[in-house]
Amino acid sequence: MNSFQFLVALTASFGGLLFGYEVGVMNVVLVMDAFRIFFKFHHWNGDGLDEKGQPTKDVANMMYRDLKEADNKATLEGLITSSFVLGALCGALMATYLGEKYGRQRTIMIGACIFTCGAVIQGLSARSWVMIAVGRLITGLSIGCNGVLCPTYISEVAPAKIRGTLSSCYQLMTTFGIIVAAVINSIVWYYTNVKPEGLGKTRSNIWEEVSNFEWRFALLFQVVPGLGLALLMCFLPKSPRWLCSKDRDEEAVEVLAKLNATSTSDELVQSELKAIQEDVAATRAAGSSSFGELFSPVIRRRTFITFLMQLFQQWTGINVIMYYQSQIYNEIGFTKFMSTVVLPIINNFVNFISTFPGMWGIERLGRKTLLVIGSLMMMVFHISTWAFSTQTSKGKTWQYLAVASIFLMVFSFAWTWGPVPWVYQAEVFPLRVRVKGSAVGTVSNFLNNWIIAFVGPALMKAWSTKTFLLFAAACLLAWVYSQFYVIECKGVSIDEMDAKMAVL
After folding, report:
1. How far apart are CA 471 and CA 231, in angstroms?
2. What angle do CA 97, 116, 93 make, to 5 degrees?
3. pLDDT on residue 7
4. Average pLDDT in the 260-266 region?
5. In the chain, what is the straight-line distance between the N-terminal and C-terminal CA atoms, in Å?
6. Among 119-128, 196-205, 225-234, 255-264, which stretch is predicted with the lowest mean pLDDT?
7. Where are the alpha helices (DSSP H) in 316-366?
8. If 0-12 CB within 10 Å is exposed, 13-18 middle and 19+ buried, where does residue 131 land?
9. What is the dihedral of CA 106, 107, 113, 118, to 10 degrees?
10. pLDDT exceeds cutoff 80 at 164
11. Is residue 394 predicted with pLDDT exceeding 80?
12. Count of CB atoms within 10 A of residue 402's CB?
């Protein structure tokens, strides 16, 4: 791999950074007092809490606002959070058409511009959950579209021997985006929610707004990575495979030469060009593809594997933790500062660092092995999180053990089930149906993500930490699926894959 190939893959992976920031920003925004009051999740009469989160009448000891939860808080929270995922679901379906018609590179660039528009709508939202939900739906359209096309684009410009590693860059940048969001917005939360003005002063209107700078800044800051990706994509080449499919072979060979840092007449470049041309010719000979073809005898197993892999990725419970982790830590018994600032940053850093072993293991251990190991590890740590959380009243030790189990669960996910589904769906389908097949996987991801995001607050409210037992059961099913149904595709050519996948 040369530096240009790495630069192309890394830049395209910035689509993951947008996804990560969107996930990370909502965890903090949802616990910002101004946001909660503005959208009427809570109201405030002027009472305060001390450093440990206990009600106090001593103004000198007041640290935080003592907000009172509204009856419809869980519903509104679920609607606003899940609207993003609903948009992503629609975006994944749009990607199939746009990616084929306009190319991977150009569509990713358009998607980044759409993301920016959605961020502006969120940040300038009026006092109605509808407007912010629409803004999040629009950013979701971008994330869903780029969630299909970024890994596909990377897999089409990456050398075969490190295709999996470079495709993992998308997941790496997603985890990095979560860290960026957590750090920036935790600092904003600290300076606006710790010892705010008005503590101890009775408010005649309990629904009256407080300064909304904190959450508007957090959401408007999404414009920076959105515009950044749009600008960077202007300098990247189009996919050589897409160019050949549009009879632009001369452009394709120039791109291949640039990717391989050699001349257009080089043997390696000509060999790659010939392989792509043969694949395109075979695709054309068979006629145009349709979604129905994904269920043909040769391809349908790939479709089911991809759909179920993304389904199980969401039902591991990872996004309940990432969306609502501050509320989970608070439920376990930690202070507001620990729950909102310290523990989320540590957890998000664990998530980021843990992606690197996955980039190493995906080529050395294989895709299937990582799924099997990861599902068993996550099941164990979900159970231990629940077990430790039932003992937190006995002292701080049990609280820290419960949080350590959450961190270990996130570690288990980040190096296994985090990157593998995205890599798998980008490489397992033939070129003829690659974007459509990848779209099915991404639709599955966002559909189940939407369900999780919507029911998450209600589950946590009704079951508290027993929710982790539900996810432990899902991880057990994921292990059965990985062990007995998934086909390893590490180092396997498309022809060899056709033979392996021919049986349902």
Report:
1. 40
2. 20
3. 80
4. 86
5. 36
6. 255-264
7. 318-332, 336-337, 343-353, 355-364
8. middle
9. 180
10. no
11. yes
12. 26
Distances in whole angstroms, Cα of residue 497 to Cα of each of 297, 367, 492, 500, 501: 13, 14, 6, 5, 6
- Alpha-carbon separation of residue 322 from 77, 137, 210, 317, 343 (angstroms): 14, 19, 27, 9, 12
Distance CA 12, CA 8 (A): 6
Burial string for 204-241 (b: 16+ CB within 10 Å, else e) reads eeeeeebebebbbebbebbbebbebbbebbeebbbbbb
What type of residue is 371? L
User: Tens of pLDDT along 65-100?
Assistant: 999 999 888 888 889 988 998 898 898 888 878 988
pLDDT of residue 344: 93
pLDDT value of position 287: 66
Distance CA 312, CA 474 (A): 7
Answer with the residue of higher pLDDT: 435 or 374.
Answer: 374
**169-181: per-residue pLDDT in tens?**
887 888 899 999 9
Q: What is the pLDDT of residue 160?
A: 62
- Averaged pLDDT, 365-381: 96
Q: Rounded distance, CA 168 to CA 420, Å?
A: 8
Q: Which of 177, 224, 184, 242 is nearest to 14 (CA)?
A: 177
Residue percentage of the chain with pLDDT more than 70: 96
Phi, psi of 55 (to 5 degrees): -60, 140
Instruction: Provide the angle, in degrees to the nearest 10, between the axes of the packed helices 355-364 and 367-389.
Output: 140
Q: Dihedral of CA 136/139/145/149: which sign?
A: negative
In angstroms, rounded to a whole number, what is the distance separating the alpha carbons of residues 123 and 186? 17
Residue with tokens 């961190």: 407
Backbone angles phi, psi at 64, to 5 degrees: -135, 160
Which of these, 453, 417, 412, lies nearest to 171 by C-alpha position? 417
User: What are the structure tokens assigned to 464, written together?
Assistant: 């508290």
pLDDT at 502 (0 to 100) = 66
Distance (Å, rounded) from C-alpha 71 to C-alpha 74? Answer: 8
Question: ∠486-317-343 over CA atoms, to 5°?
Answer: 130
Mean pLDDT score, 411-429: 90
State the pLDDT at residue 503.
61
Total Cβ atoms within 10 A of residue 504? 8
Residue type, 139: T
- Whether the CB-CB separation of 445 and 421 falls below 8 Å is answered with yes
Angle at 392 between CA 387 and CA 393, to 5 degrees: 130
Count the helices and strands in the chain (H runs, E runs): 24, 5
- How many Å is the Cα radius of gyration of the chain? 24
Could you tell me the maximum CA-CA distance found in the chain, to the nearest angstrom? 80
Query: 383-400 burial, b for 16+ CB within 10 Å, e for fewer?
Result: bbbbbbbeebeeeeebbe
Average pLDDT rounded to a whole number, residues 148-163 = 77
Cα separation, 503 vs 206, in Å, equals: 63
